[in-house]
Amino acid sequence: MLGTVLGLPLHPLVVHLTVVAVPVACVLALLCVASRHARERWGWATVLSCLVATASVAVAALSGGPLARQLPPSHTIALHAELAKVMALLVSAMTVAVTVLVYLAWRRTGAQVASWIRMPAGLHALLTPGSLGRLATIAGVVPIVASATVVLALGTAVDIVAVGHLGATAAWSKTAQQAPQSR
């Protein structure tokens, strides 16, 4: 169960990774769209950062449920949970779009699958220019994928701010109400 770690709720611990990983992934995705040099140099690192962001959002979402059940019902927490579901979809879709964009750029440069990477023959055939690689040669595919990446990265960036704000409001509004007032 994803409830606690050493007696501390897991959710606020994982959220610290999420609030760093998601914006970094969004910025790198936008850089990959904006610059072919960045796409060629940092493309696969961007895919990796998107995968880390997706995993952190998934763990944050899974750990948020047990924490929410321990708290009194709140409109803020309910809205936070709903926007977090949207976040999971957005960051996952952004990861797919960035992966396709980087793969297409990689194939356009004529890069071959590294010989040291061991993979089944069927997967190797799929990654070679004769099959999926043809997608890179179709005019208009890269601009469409790049546009989708921009929309998804911006949407994800906006959503992380909204989710984080609602989560912080839910956490700190209770603390602020319980804090002693100074005179």
What can you see in these coordinates?
By secondary structure, the protein is mostly helical. The chain has helices at 10-34, 36-70, 75-108, 121-127, 141-178; strands at residues 4-5, 8-9. Helix 1 runs antiparallel to helix 2 (36-70). The protein has one domain. The longest helix has 38 residues, at 141-178. Helix content is 76%, strand content 2%. It has a two-stranded antiparallel sheet with strand order 1-2.
Ends distance: 44 Å
Tally of alpha and pi helices: 5
Counting DSSP E segments of at least 2 residues, the number of strands comes to 2
Percent strand equals under 5%
Strand arrangement in the largest pleated sheet: 1-2
The run of helices and strands is EEHHHHH
Shape: elongated
How would a crystallographer describe the biggest sheet?
Answer: 2 strands, antiparallel
Helix content: over 70%
Mean pLDDT: 83
- Over the alpha carbons, how many angstroms does the gyration radius reach? 20 Å
What class, by secondary structure content?
A: mainly alpha
Low-confidence region ranges:
176-183
Total number of domains:
1
